[in-house]
Amino acid sequence: MIRGGFARLHTALRRSWPHHGGMRYLVPQSARQSKACSTLESRWFSLTGSRSISSTALGEVVSSEQLGVTQPKVHSGIPIANADERKVSILWSPQSWSRFHNIWLRDHCRCPDCFHPITMQRLVNTFEIPPDIKPIHVQGTTEGLEVVWPGLNTETHSSVYPWDWLQANAYDQPLHTTPDRKVIWGSKIEKSPPSVTYTEVMDDGGKGLYEWLVNIDKFGFCFVSGVPATPEATEELCQRIGFIRESQYGKIWEITADLSMGDTAYTTMALGAHTDNTYFTDPTGIQVFHILSHTEGSGGASLIVDGFYVAGLMKELYPKFHELLSRVPIPAHAAGEPYALYTPSPPAMYPPLRYHPNTGELIQVRWNNDDRSVMNHLAPDEVEEWYEAIRIWNTLLKKPESEYWVQLSPGTVLATNNHRVLHGRSAFDGKRRLCGAYIGIDEYRSKLAVLKEKFEDTVGYGWSKRSGGGTRSVWSRDL
Hints:
Blueprint: E1 13-18, E2 24-28, E3 44-46, E4 60-61, H1 64-67, E5 80-83, E6 87-93, E7 96-101, H2 102-107, E8 137-140, E9 145-150, E10 156-161, H3 163-168, E11 181-183, E12 195-197, H4 198-202, H5 207-219, E13 221-225, H6 231-239, E14 244-245, E15 252-255, E16 271-274, E17 286-295, E18 302-306, H7 307-317, H8 319-327, E19 353-355, E20 362-365, H9 383-397, E21 403-406, E22 413-417, E23 421-425, E24 431-439, H10 441-455
Parallel strand pairs: 12-13
Antiparallel strand pairs: 1-2, 2-4, 3-11, 5-6, 6-7, 8-9, 9-10, 13-22, 14-24, 15-24, 16-23, 17-22, 17-24, 18-21, 18-23, 19-20
Helix pairs in contact: 5-10, 7-8, 7-9, 8-9
């Protein structure tokens, strides 16, 4: 028996005409749409838009009258569930609803028979689920949506889906509300840059490490003060995040102006704002820089620029050229060493600005004009426009409002998100010794997620009370 239904909400909803085999649309009398608004001037910029349910986003549901079932007693705060031949519909409020395909729900059962509670891996055989599977029984409870299915290897199979989990993973209509906000910054960040101490980061409790990684996630960079000025201490600091990514420059690389490696970083020349590893298919995620010493000279100030800030400016001021940089890929190479020749795979497939295909969120800035290869894939009518686009991009990068200059000294480490923040330096003289390392973006995101589980109040979803206080649940986010 299918329990639940939308009929109890006749006071809030109006009926429309019958449609398709006696089914009908249920149309809210009114619906409000909200938009997350922010400005570059405020330095707060929502990277994904909030989604609200529109009154025109209608779907077919089966009423409880049509199914011939009795209305259950209304439970305060429990969403209303109903089902048809293909989907289970959930009414969260008069203006908010979601639908989940039967096969999707059965495939996402997280009971111990379907999802291993220790390995956190799927056990259900997706390909044994009948494509036309229909629930035997659907009911809303305080724990979540209860569904009884025809069994695959038994007579029946029971599933419970926490309400918050369903809301977070709704795809029809999407209910993702407030996205994570990142602080988009310009030169004024120098007044209060994010910083933690070496002692805090190295503490076994992990709270200082978590603050460091959250700052990198939020701002795209963070300083660590009080670090012993040695490669060994720098390596230990990096290992607090995870495995260090070895490259052609080594594991912990040391840079002096001796051209010991075939890269302009090993000179005294100024370096414009750029990201590293544009010649890799997967550029490093986190970069760590530590000045160990600088004697008998001056200069060598460090430059960082928020690529998300500059991309936002370009999108607002020059949308046509922004579109070019979001679409036209740029080939790159690293060929300064006779034993190595790096190019991305496949070549010329990555534009400077990469946006998420579903959310429209800017997820990566990839720019180093010094490592650019031949642009032989431009359409003839785009050549001049493309050069104008990168000229504007370069101008915006070099605007005083975009640049944050800082003179690093021994003991202060700078960590940047190489997928967002560009870095450079001024020319210098004297003997300058710098060490650093690369850390993969997946290593960083994994450590951040683990620490978030530990320090956030809840990890899973509130309705189920299945997780929190550092306990990972089968309903935890990202699983």
